Amino acid sequence: MKQYCCERVIGLQRQYFLPTIHKHEYMILPESMGWYWEEPGHNVNRKVGTLNNFSVHFVVSGSGYVEIDGETFLLKRGDAFLYFPMQEQRYYSSKDDPWNIRWVHFYGGILNQFLTEKGFHKSILWSVQQLPTLEKAHEQLLAEGERHSLLQLSHLSTLMYAFLMEFTSNGLPRTSDRKTELDDRIQPLLPLMQTRAYEPFELEYWANEAGVSTYYFCRLFKRATQMTPMAFITLCRLQMSKQLLLDKKDMTVREIAMEVGYPSISYFNKRFLEQEGMTPTEYREGFL
Question: CA-to-CA distance for 120 and 115, rounded, in angstroms?
Fold first, then answer.
């Protein structure tokens, strides 16, 4: 299958997209980056599990809103928000005072651990202390994508890393510590749960790892991720299966179903169809 990068400039939007590279040697790569200004219609509402990458948005001027657990937060200059993969996302510009906002979506194998260890799993909302510096780093990244696309991946990765370090060095959490307990207990487990998703799911084991009862584990998990533990495992399994369908052409769909934790191929097909809108076979054939 041929994959293309594309740039789209509509009105006061500037954005650039790149294909996701599944096998690479870099810590971090951008998937897309952009800059919107004076766009009162900018409105994003993504359900849980929609995007499997990280994203940072920061407001340069104007104002907008982010909704978290049914609560609405006003964002202005210097405010930012960070999403981890598969999180629910709800944000939009003010119609009366449209925001000037820059953003980047990115991915990398060790980013979950890297950001979690720095405490960036504890909040969605942040305040940037050195906004001009972050803005400059973002402009360099966006310009590099526009100029060279995938031709200089090493430089693109370096600029993406520089942007992320500027953000983590200058970002302070904007929200209170009311979710500290759930973040500290649940977020560190997510990477391990993801890598072991193909195993039979044992709720008692993971609750014990978190040091809480199964009932409280499910409550904390739902509040931290906006989904149930089993829903998270299902998304991880389906993500594994999509990778295998494309990378392991010699494996049958039945073998892949078994590999990712589904002994029943009919149940695997049902789950895949519900999530992707097509069967595993149709998904594979679409990339041939």
Answer: 5
Whether the CA torsion 278, 242, 204, 208 is positive or negative: it is negative
Secondary element (H or E) of residue 101: strand 100-107
Residue 209's H or E segment, with its range, is helix 203-210
Cross-sheet strand order for the sheet of 6-8: 6-8, 13-17, 29-36, 100-107, 54-61, 79-83, 125-128, 171-173
DSSP SS3 for 43:
strand
The span from the CA of 210 to the CA of 218, in Å, is 11
Rounded to whole angstroms, the Cα distance separating 143 from 120 reads 27
C-alpha distances in angstroms, 15 versus 56, 121, 142? 14, 26, 8
- The tens digit of pLDDT for each residue in 19-70 reads 888 888 899 999 999 999 988 999 999 999 888 999 999 999 999 999 998 8
Tokens of 210: 């978190």
Domains located in the chain, CATH noted: 6-173 (2.60.120.280), 180-286 (1.10.10.60)
> 108 and 28 in contact (C-beta within 8 Å)?
yes
Would you say 276 and 286 are in contact if contact means Cβ atoms under 8 Å apart? no
The sign of the dihedral angle between the CA atoms of 275, 81, 121, 27 is positive
Rounded CA separation 145/5 (Å): 9
- Does the pTM surpass 0.85? The reply is no
Q: Quote the CA–CA distance of 163 and 155 in Å, as a whole number.
A: 12
- Each residue's pLDDT tens digit, 118-142: 889 888 999 998 899 999 999 999 9
